[in-house]
Amino acid sequence: MLELSEEQRKAVEYVDGPSLVTAGAGSGKTRTLTAKIAHLVNRLGHDPARILAITFTNKAAGEMKSRLRAVTGRPAEAFPWVRTFHSACFQILKEHCEVLGYQKPLTIHSEYQQKTNLKRVLGRLDLDPKLLNPMRAAISRAKNSENPWHALDHSFRVPRKREAYELYNELLVQQNAVDFDDILMLTRDLLRNYGEVREICRGLFDYILIDEFQDSNAIQNEIVDLLLRDGRLTVVGDDYQSIYRFRGADPVHFIRFPEKFPGAAVFRLEENYRSTEAIVKAAEALIAHNRYRIEKTCFSRRSGPPVAVRGFTGEDLEAAWVADCCWQYHLYEKIPLDQMAVLYRTRFCSLAFERAFRSSGIPYQLMGGRGFFERREVQDINAYLVASVNPRDDASFERIVNVPRRGIGSGTLQKIMGYKAGPLSMQEACRLAFEDGVLPKKTAKELGRLLHLLESLGRERPDRAIRRILEETGYVEYLEAFAENERDAGERLENIEQMVHAASQKQTIAEYLEDCALLREDQDDADDGHGVRLSTFHAAKGLEYRVVFVAGVEEGLLPHWRSVTVGTGQEGGALENEAGIEEERRLLYVAMTRASERLHLSWCRTRRGELVSPSRFLDELPEGLIVREDL
């Protein structure tokens, strides 16, 4: 049996009714959950095939099966119901799909098949093919909500959503297939509406256990309720780490568990085995400002230095200082580079660190996303710049000739290609076609504007050139129209603002583009897994590092303005969303508790050339646990 603390042991051995295990960061919750399953099997004699254990990722399910094999001596195959929500639900759905009008075998569409169907739907409705991703996101949100039609009506700038939703679902039924989002929705409907099926499924399980319960949504909770028999349920999680509200997750399901199940046992795993006492207490003091939580008093027996809080004049100095610190830790304390991480609230913050690490020769790895210069909007704007300074670069010109839309379709491009002979570039061919008057009047006008813009951009400073592209092409409106949602649009616009700031530090477009190319090359060379980790807070959840730098702890970034602003008051000031502020505080809590030995928090007086102020969250950290320094 696994070695357990007293509170862990109590949580493991309690099987007399519903129980909630609220587990602080680094407190051994997965160990406790694994030990409880082993206890049910080895001590109480339950059939492992009758235990449903839900994890939130396939990786976590695989790791749990490996641990169970080691602890119980049973093969991984003996635990067929250690699965994610989607995987478990599909097992139920494919067995009973005929009740819903499907035939066996039921198949799950891949992302490619999903997109193929959506392209057909957009074609039938005569909608722009570039609406594919926002339409897909709107349909996904609808299927993960309690009221799909209401969710569709509130989707971000997507036309004819209801018609598209119905057409898309008709295609799925015709093809005897479901998509990923159907799995939960159809399983819920199956269990809710067909009592006989519900009783069969309830009879499959003697016990249900759920990990990361704070990240569950309304549909997942209803499925658990529909499957539950005799209150044999244990949920494990940490409401302090609930950070997926934008996906529909709601910590209220976790927090109100004792109300939902009167008499439920509550176990608190409060000892942090990962981080030092200073880190644990600082994070604890921060999260104590959240009103909606299950109270825990987390502690650690490990000593260590206080949390460091530093202010910088700007993001370039902040990034350079972090890079220098990483070298110092590596050279003098022998801490491996991959045991250090730089965490930030939004992806655009990665650029300053990518540049600083390249300058210092420090290997780095971008986690959970592409490099800054690999993002679509960044590549679009850079293609404009390349086409302006190198008219012979046909690839860049072809990328932007119809972005945003100018009515230049395949037919127009065919006419232009007819002028492209020998060494002529696409831009030169366009000019010839324009001068010969073979293009439709409106198309010719748009093409003429584009050619004039490209010709004049080459003389501008790079930041001014980017501003002109945005102003004269309508690219911002284009981004907003084809973004998946408001959050996606906001992130892409932030990336462009970061581009403008980076470009402002170069004298010419050529210098700026050279810098971009070198950063991309460095990232291509860094794919061996070695190097300092650069990550958003969300992508870092569940990971741990010996040294963590949390950057950009500033108002507007953390808490992020989009997450906390809900409108304007009578005096014209911004109204703040308390739930949003609490989620932002949980995000910082998650970032802080990734650190096991050293934690640095930093903020800047200016970011992207604008004055900013330190985050309100820094004022919530007790002076006895932190040291402050301004550089």
Automatic annotation (TrEMBL):
Keywords: ATP-binding, DNA-binding, Helicase, Hydrolase, Isomerase, Nucleotide-binding. The lineage of its organism: Bacteria, Pseudomonadati, Thermodesulfobacteriota, Syntrophobacteria, Syntrophobacterales. Residues 2-276 form the UvrD-like helicase ATP-binding domain. This is DNA 3'-5' helicase. GO terms for biological process: recombinational repair. InterPro entries: DExx_box_DNA_helicase_dom_sf, DNA_helicase_UvrD-like_C, DNA_helicase_UvrD/REP, P-loop_NTPase, UvrD-like_ATP-bd. Belongs to the helicase family. UvrD subfamily. It is an enzyme of class 5 (isomerase). Residues 277-542 form the UvrD-like helicase C-terminal domain. It catalyses: Couples ATP hydrolysis with the unwinding of duplex DNA by translocating in the 3'-5' direction; ATP + H2O = ADP + phosphate + H(+). ATP binds at residues 23-30. Its EC number is 5.6.2.4.
